[in-house]
Q: What sequence folds into this?
């Protein structure tokens, strides 16, 4: 009985080892495929919904362009099929696949057709080269400007800033001097004496051309008239005038016609004398106005005082530095 017990123990030990090995090498099997199973009504509705959405979706312009480019590249990279009419006509003329066209022995003959370079956009043929040239010039100019800025030292930068501040200050003083001149000579320009609204002669004097005004302060008047025209234009745009522009009133004055929009106002466009004066440096313009005030009106722009006689006793001098 002992041997049989041993054999039974050996079988049991072997079965225990096999069971351990099977446990360690166990593989999780995937569930059986559901392809053979019938489609449920819920799955069928979901599938039909997805198919309908895919058919109804309109591709974007970018997608259409990419698809067209892909189709073009694929067609160009595909050899001419034997069944095509073109290939059959070339074969009748002696063409064979893999050989060149033309006479035999020609070293420069091509085996492959010329490549197609598709041009996109509406620009001309030479536009790309022109753009590249302009881009290079802009890069070179930018590099040159950066180099000039880098070469500017700290002292030169401060000097340039000081000059710009001085010019801006002189420009402001010029406008102040023009207002002083207008106070002395500005009768009939709309800023001196107040005009009666019913006095037609006074209104005509207020709208005379600016050419008769002294060039030293003519810019001030032209600037004011320009602002007034812009203000009046804005006002007319926001007002609903019930009057017919085609109506002609013989008793209507010129200024009323301009206000109603029935007559256009003549604008002074060119003034060479004023253009020449304004082209001067602000400091030089200010010097001319200060000297004119002293000579004609015995007025010192720096003292802000009009002296009783031409000697102008008590005035330190002509320049601002002399006044401290």
A:
């Amino acid at each position: 009985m002992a041997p049989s017990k041993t054999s039974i123990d050996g079988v049991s030990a072997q079965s225990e080892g096999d069971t351990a090995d099977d446990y360690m090498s166990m593989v999780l099997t995937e569930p059986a495929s559901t392809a053979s199973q019938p489609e449920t009504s819920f799955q069928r509705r979901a599938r039909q919904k997805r198919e309908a959405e895919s058919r109804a979706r309109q591709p974007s312009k970018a997608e259409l362009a990419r698809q067209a480019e892909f189709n073009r590249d694929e067609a160009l990279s595909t050899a001419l099929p034997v069944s095509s009419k073109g290939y059959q006509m070339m074969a009748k003329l002696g063409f064979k696949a893999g050989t060149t066209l033309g006479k035999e022995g020609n070293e420069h003959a091509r085996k492959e057709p010329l490549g197609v370079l598709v041009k996109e956009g509406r620009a001309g043929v030479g536009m790309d080269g022109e753009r590249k040239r302009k881009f290079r010039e802009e890069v070179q100019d930018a590099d040159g400007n950066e180099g000039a800025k880098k070469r500017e030292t700290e002292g030169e930068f401060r000097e340039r800033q000081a000059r710009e501040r001085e010019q801006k200050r002189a420009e402001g003083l010029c406008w102040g001097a023009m207002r002083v001149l207008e106070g002395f000579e500005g009768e009939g320009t709309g800023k001196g004496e107040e005009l009666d609204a019913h006095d037609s002669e006074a209104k005509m004097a207020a709208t005379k051309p600016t050419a008769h005004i002294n060039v030293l302060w003519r810019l001030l008047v032209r600037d004011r008239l320009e602002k007034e025209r812009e203000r009046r234009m804005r006002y007319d745009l926001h007002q609903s005038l019930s009057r017919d522009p085609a109506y002609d009133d013989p008793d209507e004055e010129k200024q009323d016609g301009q206000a109603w929009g029935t007559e256009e106002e003549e604008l002074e466009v060119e003034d060479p004398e004023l253009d020449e004066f304004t082209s001067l440096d602000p400091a030089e313009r200010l010097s001319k106005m200060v000297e004119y005030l002293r000579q004609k009106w015995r007025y010192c722009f720096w003292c802000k005082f009009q002296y009783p006689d031409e000697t102008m006793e008590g005035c330190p001098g002509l320049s601002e530095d002399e006044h401290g």
